[in-house]
Amino acid sequence: MLGKLLKYEIKATSRTFLPMYALLIVFALLNKFFMAVNADYLRIPQIIAMSVFVVIIVGICVMTLIVTIQRFNKNLLTDEGYLSFTLPVKAHAHIDSKMIVSLMWSLLSVIVSFIAIFVMAVNEKTIQGIHEFLAQAVPAFNSLGASGYVILLEGIVLVIIATLGSIVTIYAAITIGNMSSKHKLLAGLGAYLGFGIIEQIVASVIITSFGGTFQRYFESLNRATMSAQIGAVQLVMLWMILYTLFFGALYYILTNWMLQRKLNLE
Amino acid sequence: MENILECQNLVKFFPGCLALNSVNLTVPRGKIVGLLGPNGSGKSTLIKLANGLITPTSGKILINGMEPGIETKKIVSYLPERTYLNDWMTVNNMIEFFCDFYENFNKQKAYEMLKKLGVDPAQRLKTMSKGTKEKVQLILVMSREAELYLLDEPIGGVDPAARDYILDTIIGNYNENASIIISTHLISDVEKILDGIIFINKGSIVLTSTVDDIREHENKSVDTLFREVFKC
Fold first, then answer.
1. Strands across the sheet containing B76-79
2. H helix runs in chain B, sequence order
3. Collapsing DSSP states into helix, strand and coil, what is residue B202?
4. What pLDDT, in 10s, does the model give residues A183-224?
5. Which residues, 6+ apart, have CB-to-CB distance to B36 below 8 Å?
6. Complex ipTM, two decimals?
């Protein structure tokens, strides 16, 4: 059933994203053309095209956030929820499908924006620059050995977990907001801020309790060997992953529990 | 399991309002039952509880002996009193959607009914009138071969001619093992297809009876009885 939910979730959201991506690529090419011609009489259209390009990139970022909120709220907690919640699927399947598709668009938006910028800016100079960068970066990366790949993998996992974590934080806030019968938006915002405050408190408690230990650990690293320092990076990344995962899992469980047990569609 | 729907001391409390007050109720299989009551009497609340869209404050609601969940959602076909269709889809899309999620959805039946009521399956829901949307929704719901149909105000928004066709399809389409619960206040329209009635007022069941009993013993139509019981 998750597969079917994913199918319809992608169907419902791609209507928004694909035209935006197409528009971005069109304007990237347009800007590239203007830059290639570089004529004085085209200066004003060139500036406009460039501004539009920037606006579209900002628009895509904003859109990703809005669609994340909108799909969850509208499809589950308004009239459409009457259909969603009478489908023979578990509540968590709804969360999973929406979370996965939101993650997909978030990553895709970043990738497409980079491609657009690359397409626009690419010329002999930039290619040469990239070659020079790679010529230095690759040997440096290889000198790390297997740890390089571990750190890279940890980085990717951290980005994914952090994105999923922030998506599910929004879901939890919306679901809590929906429990209020009158001020859903306000309650949702309040819940979101509340989560932020709780996370801050937890973070400061950890730092004040173990601050000294952390400091001594990092100071000792200054005098440590290269391999010990690399090991430390791996370890710190691992802790960051676990920390993000912990809060993400909490919000996920909270959202699922409320959708299962406390659902009150108007 | 003889009873398709059973409520045991079912209570639903909304902030500032007792929507259902200790309701005990059984609906057997193979019956068409009218859930009748004035506005705000708890009809929709009861139906929403049966669908798991809201959770009971206390007590139990059982469908085929199970609390609302995946297994009951497979056998319950629900028509809410509002339109829940995603407006960017076409009717064809919606039929595909129902086919994907409900094993008991009968595609052929859906297309037949659409044709009969003159709805173009390629039309987007966004461009439809409210009445047409309601027709589409009812067709989708009645095209499922379910064991329990819960119809909340199914004919409120459609014209009387379509109303008759819809009622005919309702009785023509369900098998004898299935039950239908129709909530409405358009009693005279649905009276002819009902086997039994449940009168509900202010969250409590006032009367349950069969239509035959009312006709024989009280010598009244359901409509007249309703007007008497709920006289303002």
1. B76-79, B148-152, B179-184, B32-36, B196-201, B204-210
2. 43-50, 70-75, 91-101, 107-116, 130-142, 160-173, 187-190, 211-213, 222-229
3. coil
4. 889 999 999 999 999 999 999 999 888 888 888 888 888 888
5. B43, B183, B184, B185, B187, B197, B198, B199, B200, B222, B226
6. 0.90
User: Bridge-partner residues for B198, per DSSP?
Assistant: B35, B208
Q: How far is A218 from chain B (nearest CA, A)?
A: 52
Q: Which residue is listed with tokens 């935006």?
A: A20
- Both ends of chain B: CA-CA distance in Å? 40
Inter-residue contact B77 to B148 (CB < 8 Å): yes
Length of chain B: 232
DSSP string, chain A: -HHHHHHHHHHHHHHHHHHHHHHHHHHHHHHHHHHHH--GGGHHHHHHHHHHHHHHHHHHHHHHHHHHHHHHHHHHHSTTHHHHTTSSS-HHHHHHHHHHHHHHHHHHHHHHHHHHHHHHH-SHHHHHHHHHHHHHHHHHHHHTTHHHHHHHHHHHHHHHHHHHHHHHHHHHHHHHHHHSSS-HHHHHHHHHHHHHHHHHHHHHHHHHHHHHHHHHHHHHHHTS-HHHHHHHHHHHHHHHHHHHHHHHHHHHHHHHHHHHHS-B--
Residues of B in contact with A15 (CB under 8 A): 88
B10 vs B19: CA distance, rounded Å = 10
pLDDT (tens digit per residue) in A43-89: 888 999 999 999 999 999 999 999 999 999 999 999 999 999 999 99
What 3 state SS string does B203-226 have? CEEEEEEEHHHHHHHHCCCHHHHH
How much is the pTM? Answer: 0.90
Say how far apart CA B171 and CA A23 lie, in whole Å. 52
Which 8-state DSSP code applies to residue B79? E
How far does the CA of residue A143 sit from the closest CA of chain B (Å)? 52
The token duo for A129 is 């620059």
Phi, psi of A153 (to 5 degrees): -60, -45
Report CA-CA distances (Å) from A114 to A117, A118, A121, B14: 5, 6, 10, 51
Would you call A79 and B83 a contact, using CB atoms and an 8 Å cutoff? yes
Q: Which of B54, B80, B97 sits opposite A264 (nearest CB)?
A: B54
Name the β-bridge partners of B207: B199
Going by C-alpha positions, the residue among A167, A160, A163 that lies closest to residue A255 is A167
What is the number of other CB atoms lying within 10 angstroms of the CB of residue B20?
25
Of A4, A90, A265, the CB nearest to B100: A4
Does the distance separating the beta carbons of A83 and B85 come in below 8 Å? Answer: yes
- CB of A90 within 8 Å of a chain B CB? The answer is yes
- Say how far apart CA A150 and CA A227 lie, in whole Å: 13
